[in-house]
Amino acid sequence: MRFIGRLLLLVIIVLVVGVVGLSFVDLGRFSPQIEAAAQKATGRALKIDGRLHIGISLEPELVAEKVSFANADWGTKPEMMKADRLALKIAVLPLLKGQVALKSVELDDADIYVETDKAGKGNWEFGTAQAEATTKAGGTPALAGVPNVAISNLKITYRDGTTKKVTTADFKKVSIAQKVGGVHATIEGDVNGSAVAFDSDVFQAVGDISLKDVSVTVAGTSAKGDLTLALGGAKPNITGALTSPKFDLTPFTKGDGGGKSKGGPVFSRDPLPLDQLGAADADVAVSVGSLVFGKVELTNVKLPVKLKDGQLNAPLSAAYRGVPINATVAANGGSRTVSLDARTTSLDLGQLFKDLEVTDLLSVKADIAAKLSGRGRSLHDIAANLNGMTNLATGEGTVNSKMFAIVSDDLAKAIIPSGQSGDKARLVCALSAFNFQGGVGTSKALAVETDSLITTGGGTINLGTEQIDLLLNPKPKNPSLMSVAFPIRVSGPLSAPSAGLDRTGVVTGVATAVGGVALTGGVGALLPLMSSGNGGAASSGGCAKLAAAAAQDSGGVGGAVKGVGSAVGGAAEGAAKGVGGAVKGIGEGIGGLFGK
C-alpha cells in the first residue's frame, strides 16, 4: 500500500510540475492556426496580439491576452470585441473521450461593440454556412452545460442603425455560478450612467426557465419577484409577478438634454417598437407602492400586463394624493394602434400642476376623462390620427391672472379683468370637451366662469400640425367691464401659443345668455360633464350651478332649454334641448361619459 501511495504522489508531482512548466511556455506559435480556424468559422478576423499560454490550475486553462475580434464589414468600428485577457478552463474527463467541455470562462477589461445596420441586421450575425448551421443546430442550451462565468470591467456599446441612438453599459461584475438544478447569476454596473444590478437563481425544467427570488435594481430603484420564461411554444411566454416598494421614473425620462425648444415639435417622430409586441407573450402582475416622476407620486399602483399575439392590455389603477385614478393602455403591434381610456374624479388639478412644475397659480379640483385611440409608427403619427374625446369639469377654486399672462396679457384680462380682486379671482367653474377625429380636436364645450365674468369659446386643436386655434368670448358680469368684451384668439404652435384681441372675430356656435350664464355648444354639451351625487368636483356647486342657471334661461343657440330643473349638488334628471338635439338622463357623471 505504501508503494501505491508513493506512486500516486509521484504522479501528482509530475503532473503539477508539468502544468507549471507549461504555464511558462509561450504557445504563440499556434496563434495563426487558431486565428485561421476562427476566420473559417465566422468569416471574421480573430487576433491574439499578446501571450497565449497555459494557466496554473489543476485543470487545463488556456489563457489568451490582447484578444480582438473584427466587426462586420459594414460596421462603424473596425472591431466588435477587444479584451485584455480571456481564460478558458477545460474539463479533463471529457478530453479523454475526445470532447471539449468548458468548465469556466474568465474575461477581463473587455470592450464589446454591438450594432445593427439600417435594415436591422446585427453585427453578431455571421454570414458563413458553418455559422448558420451552428445557429440552427444550437437550440436552447441546457443550464447544466453552462460554464461558470467571471467577467470584470466589461463595457458594452449598442448602436441602433435605424435611429442612430447609442446605449452604453459598464459592468464591474458579471458572474454565473453553477448550483444544484441551475445557476446563480449576478450583474453589477451601470447603463447610460444609471446604476443597475441583477441577482437571481435561474432554473430550467422541460424548456421553461424560471427566475426565483429575482432582484433588479436600476438607478437606485428596486423590484423583486419570480418570473418564468416558457420556451416550448411558438414564441416565448413570460409569466410572474414583480413588486417594488418605490420606483422612480425620473432618471429614465431625462432624455438627451431636456425638453423641446419653444415653438418646436411636441410629439416625437422616433419609431415606437410596436412591431416587437409580437415577439413574445406575457402575463405579468406589477405592483408598486410608490411610483415617482419628479415631484409627482402615485401610490398603490397595480399594473397587470397582458401581452398575447401582439396585443397589449395594461389596466392601471393608482392614487394621486389619495384620489383614485384608473387608466387602461392597449396596443396592437400588427395594426400599430394605441388606445387610452382614463378617468378620475375630484383630482387636485392645482396641486398636480404644481408638482409638474407647470404653474402654482391654480387651486381647484377636477373630474377628468379621456378615451382616445390612434395609429402610426411614432407618437406624432398616432397623435395625427387620433380619434376620441377628452372631458374636464372643475369645482370651485381660485386662479391667478398671471397663469394666463404666461400666454398673453390680453388673455389674462379676458379671463380675470384687472381691478377685480387684484390678480386673483374666484374660479366658479371650468368646462372643456373636445372631440378628436383624424388628429383634429373640435371643441364641443368650453367655458370658464370667475367671480367677474364668464368666458366661452370654441375652436380646434390640430395634433398633426401641432397648431391650436381657439376663439374666446368674454362676458363681464359687471356692465362697467364691457371694455374687455372683445373676442380673444389663441393660436399658434402647441408648444408656444399666442393670444390677442380679435375685434372682428365671430365665435361660431357660442352664445352668452342674458343672465350672465354661458352656453357653449348648447347645454347638451355641458351637462354630461357633471358628476353624479357628491363625489365629483363638478357637483360641488360651481359647474352644477352654472348648468342649472343655464337651464332656466330661455335663450340658447338656436332653441330653448326646458325641463332641466335644479342641478346644485348633483345633476338634473329630465331632457334639455340644445343645439344638436335632446339630452336625457343627465347625471351619469364623469364615470359614464363614454357609455360605460
Write structural notes for this entry.
It is a single chain. 15% of the residues lie in helices and 45% in strands. It is mostly beta strands. Among the domains are: 22-119; 142-244, no CATH class; 296-509, no CATH class. The strands form 3 sheets. The protein has a 28-stranded mixed sheet that branches. Strand 2 and strand 3 form a beta hairpin. The model is unreliable at 1-24, 128-139, 255-260, 506-534 and 549-596 (pLDDT under 50).
Bulk shape: elongated
Low-confidence stretches: 1-24, 128-139, 255-260, 506-534, 549-596
Distance between the termini: 90 Å
Beta-strand content bin: over 45%
- Helix tally equals 10
Q: Give average pLDDT, whole number.
A: 74
Number of E-type strands:
32
**Coarse structural class:** mainly beta
What level of helicity do the residues show? 10-25%
Secondary-structure topology with pairs:
Layout: H1 2-23, H2 31-42, E1 46-48, E2 52-54, E3 61-70, E4 79-90, H3 92-96, E5 102-115, H4 129-138, E6 148-159, E7 166-179, E8 182-191, E9 194-205, E10 208-218, E11 221-230, E12 237-244, E13 247-248, E14 281-293, E15 296-308, E16 311-320, E17 323-332, E18 337-348, H5 349-355, E19 362-363, E20 365-375, H6 379-384, E21 387-394, E22 397-400, H7 401-405, H8 409-415, E23 424-437, E24 440-450, E25 453-462, E26 467-476, E27 488-493, E28 498-501, E29 510-512, E30 518-520, H9 523-526, H10 542-552, E31 575-577, E32 582-584
Parallel strand pairs: 5-6, 12-14, 13-14
Antiparallel strand pairs: 1-3, 2-3, 3-4, 4-5, 6-7, 7-8, 8-9, 9-10, 10-11, 11-12, 14-15, 15-16, 16-17, 17-18, 18-20, 19-22, 20-21, 21-23, 22-23, 23-24, 24-25, 25-26, 26-27, 27-28, 29-30, 31-32
InterPro entries: AsmA, AsmA-related
Pfam families: AsmA (PF05170)
Domain AsmA: 7-160, 265-444
